[in-house]
């Protein structure tokens, strides 16, 4: 068996690997890397035509965004994913198609038909349900976002486990990833792969958020929370609602903007994939956490109602690479009473990363905007941190070989290479398994 990395090696984004043996092959994820420019997997277009199967670990575009490009090249592989992933991909790919069409001024890289074809052909697979994709494959819960999956591949006696993105902690919506699986080879993400990447508890992070919100509201300011539409937004919104109900946060409107509202509906429709706490709230009471009266949508395109009085705005995009957050930032950046709270990973080169690196002037809609508002970062993550990754790796039974990917910097190798054959792969390199 051979494993080739077309993306995701020593970087966060555009995850795309090909596992093959003879004519058999399975592509593990099919993502893009969003930033000032969009980066695609380094696979030649002619190669796409021979791809027979693609499994998708979860809906985020850095794992799924290249699918319509594959279809635009007339390739027709079998595509496998969980139901929540299929539902969420429909929203994310449609939005991505609209943005890329506008950016390329009609010279579109793919069309809405390609997105429709991906959605039509996607095969829904439940957790623990074995399926054939040239190899025997099974999905296991990854805990990262709703529907996220670890992928177990069996080929005779060989077992290869691809982690996808994993979370080791129970969150407001999801249980942690499954542990204790058996595999000879592990392909594992290490977004937080350095010794400094030790995340605080959710309680500590939210206490800091509560403090910032109260101080900002006391001054009469607005709070902007840039967020990924899928995953982080739902966790943050449900936490804000809980704290507001308990009195920890003063009552005010919580606005959702961008695709977050659509993602919330999909989460609600797939609540069977949530943890037992969520299911009990929905099934055993009328307390539906996804339909709180504290949640609001802007009433008009001008968003005048949002800007009128102090409120919390949870909006896309999470890295300030586009979306409604730029509108709010342009309108609110000049006032030091306001605050922006980052709650997610800010990849190198993104506007969000530049703001966190203390750049005080950024470009929004072609004009320079000076940032006078309060800038804060809360360490909330749907990823395992450095110590949790070590725990996860050590939980895999019979493990001999570890590929560390989906991380810009990694110090994990030094911590585990006395026990395993550890490889930090390079783009376009092929490794024997």
From TrEMBL:
Pfam families (UniProt xref): Anti-Pycsar_Apyc1, Beta-Casp, RMMBL
Stated name of the protein: Ribonuclease J
UniProt-listed SMART domains: Beta-Casp, Lactamase_B
E.C. no: 3.1.-.-
Keywords in alphabetical order: Hydrolase
Annotated GO MF terms: hydrolase activity; RNA endonuclease activity
InterPro entries, per the entry: Beta_Casp, MBL, Metallo-B-lactamas, RibonucZ/Hydroxyglut_hydro, RMMBL
Gene3D superfamilies reported in the protein's UniProt record: 3.40.50.10890, Ribonuclease Z/Hydroxyacylglutathione hydrolase-like (3.60.15.10)
Domain Beta-Casp residues, every copy: 233-355
Domain Metallo-beta-lactamase: 13-202
CDD domains in alphabetical order: TTHA0252-CPSF-like_MBL-fold (cd16295)
Gene it is expressed from: rnj_2
